[in-house]
Specification:
It contains ten helices and six strands, in the order H-H-H-E-E-H-H-E-E-E-H-E-H-H-H-H. The protein is α+β, with helices and mostly antiparallel strands. It has two domains: 92 residues, no CATH class; 203 residues, Lysozyme, CATH 1.10.530. Strands 5-4-3-6 form a four-stranded antiparallel beta sheet, with no helix packed on it. The chain has a two-stranded antiparallel ribbon with strand order 1-2. The longest helix has 36 residues.
Length: 299
């Protein structure tokens, strides 16, 4: 009886060592090939073959089965962590295009910047990022140069088509000229947005602010950053959009408040007919919120 127990114990030790090597192989295979399903099947087959040995006592079989479950659980956890890490790295590294800045930021950079602004002005980072993407969707291929500083006429850069409402003369052109002078830019060689089928164009930079609105927020931005505000500076654009959205109701961090803020950002009113803009912004916000929640797993 004693010899049988010693034999069973030695066999169990051998099988545990063998099984540990198998588990390590499982993890190595999964690490190299990412095919955890195939390696799970292989490892399970090894386990079943071992437990089918009629010479093993039930308690030895139970110990082997428990050990298998432990190793398999650890392997599964490692694979899950690796998978999460790869997904986080992929999300952070993807490009986050801004209006006029196609390759400057990664999504991770944009989230970091949005978090900084959002913390100060009490809005959701995902909503701030969504505004930039909705503006990009609308204006990416529709930029103009102003040619007549009296009438506000200009032309579409992509086609050369002459347009009559590139910038509103009384409301925006005087402020635009002041901004251009301060930044040392040429007002007729600086791209602004073209007019849509309604209203005027003339908005500047990634945040797509018309000059008269930019002037309202210029001093606030400079007070925060401690430097001259520039509509084409990405950090300043984030601050401008964040401050404006917060003032427009996004600081409630409710869906209704954000929807209203998006309406005001685009048209100046929550009662305008351009609800598609707010709807599109909220769709982007939902997408980015999911991505941000994945990124936060690493914290």
């Amino acid at each position: 009886m004693r010899k049988k127990f010693i034999f069973s114990l030695l066999l169990a030790v051998f099988l545990v060592i063998f099984f540990a090597v198998g588990a390590k192989m499982f993890l190595n295979y999964a690490s190299l090939y990412g095919d955890s399903r195939i390696n799970t099947i292989r490892l399970s087959s090894q386990k079943e073959a071992i437990l089918a040995n009629g010479q093993l006592e039930e308690r030895v079989k139970k110990a082997i089965a428990d050990y298998y479950n432990l190793i398999f659980g650890l392997g599964t956890m490692v694979l899950r962590i690796k998978s999460d890490t790869q997904e986080i790295d992929r999300i952070r590294a993807r490009n986050f295009e801004l209006l006029g800045e196609p390759d400057t930021l990664t999504f991770g950079d944009a989230v970091d910047m949005a978090n900084l602004v959002a913390k100060r002005v009490d809005i959701r980072p995902a909503f701030l990022l969504a505004i930039f993407q909705e503006e990009l969707k609308l204006e990416k291929f529709d930029m103009c140069y102003l040619t007549d500083l009296t009438t506000g006429e200009g032309f579409r850069i992509s086609t050369g088509e002459k347009l009559f409402k590139v910038m509103k003369p009384d409301r925006d052109i005087p402020h635009f000229l002041d901004i251009m002078k301060e930044l040392g830019k040429n007002p007729t060689e600086t791209a602004v947005t073209c007019p849509m089928s309604f209203g005027w164009g003339g908005a500047m930079g990634p945040s797509d602010f018309i000059p008269s609105t930019w002037i309202e927020y210029k001093n606030k931005i400079e007070k925060i950053t401690g430097k001259q505000a520039n509509p084409w500076n990405i950090q300043d654009a984030f601050w401008a959009a964040g401050l404006y959205l917060s003032d427009s109701g996004a600081n409630t961090q409710t869906r209704a408040g954000e929807w209203n803020a998006a309406m005001v950002y685009f048209s100046g009113s929550i009662n305008s007919p351009y609800t598609w803009y707010a709807d599109g912004t909220m769709a982007f916000a939902d997408e980015f919120q999911g991505d941000i929640e994945i990124l936060e797993r690493r914290k």
